[in-house]
Specification:
alpha/beta; 230 residues; seven-stranded mixed β-sheet
Length: 230
């Protein structure tokens, strides 16, 4: 398995690094918007060389980075936050509070609430994976960056963007098992997915692995129904 960078929508790229220890891809995203770049997440620190290489190949110059948004505080998503000036780095306040003192210095902006508008993107607070996990939405491309609320950790990614029939089925089966074993977590998962239905999502950019394309709302509705059925 190798690292890969791919265009996933108009002026939107996915950067996938492969972590051998986890047998999993880790995703970040780059959006070219209004003559500037928006970055979402930043991989593990150990993946810095490829992350920087990918940014350079896309054409991301430091002076043109306007915003760096983080879906949540875990190390595989904020591992390279120090590459960027703190004034560019944004994280939800509930996750900011969970960071150590040094890590807090990397973030010059926090935001709070259940959802709303940020510069260039919209967000929803999905406090399921971490206290401050969020999803971001680009209304121009209709791509939703959902972080680890729904992802394909330790799953193969034959194509970066795919309908992903087998991946969808794996989530259905996983959620059914989860509902039996940890019903409170399954309910929390469904609650977050329900919050995403207000967006007209065409592609679901996950925190790990394949970006799903097509029939996103029906898929989310199906997962919600599975989690809540008697």
């Amino acid at each position: 398995m190798t690292n890969v960078t791919a265009l996933i929508a108009e002026s939107t790229w996915a950067i996938l690094t492969y972590e051998e220890a986890w047998k999993s891809y880790i995703n970040s995203y780059v959006i070219a918007k209004n003559d500037a770049f928006v970055l979402i997440d930043s991989h593990l620190r150990k993946h810095r060389p490829y992350f920087q290489q990918a940014l350079a190949e896309i054409g991301v110059k430091p002076e043109r980075i306007g915003y760096v948004y983080f879906t949540h505080r875990h190390a595989d998503h904020i591992g390279n936050a120090d590459l960027f000036p703190s004034r560019h780095n944004w994280i939800h306040l509930d996750d900011y509070y969970e960071l150590d003192d040094f890590s807090q210095t990397l973030f010059g902006h926090t935001f709070t609430g259940s959802g709303g508008d940020l510069p260039l993107l919209q967000f929803r607070h999905l406090p399921f994976h971490t206290e401050g996990s969020v999803a971001f939405f680009d209304p121009d491309t209709k791509v939703c960056f959902v972080g680890d609320h729904l992802s394909f950790f330790a799953r193969p990614a034959e194509r970066v963007v795919d309908y992903g029939a087998e991946l969808r089925e794996s989530w259905r089966q996983f959620l059914l098992r989860w509902k039996e074993q940890e019903p409170e977590k399954a309910a929390g998962m469904a609650e977050g997915l329900e919050m995403l239905l207000g967006w007209p999502i065409e592609r679901l950019a996950t925190g790990h692995g394949t970006v799903l394309s097509g029939d996103i709302a029906p898929f989310l509705q199906e997962l919600i129904a599975l989690a809540r059925q008697p």
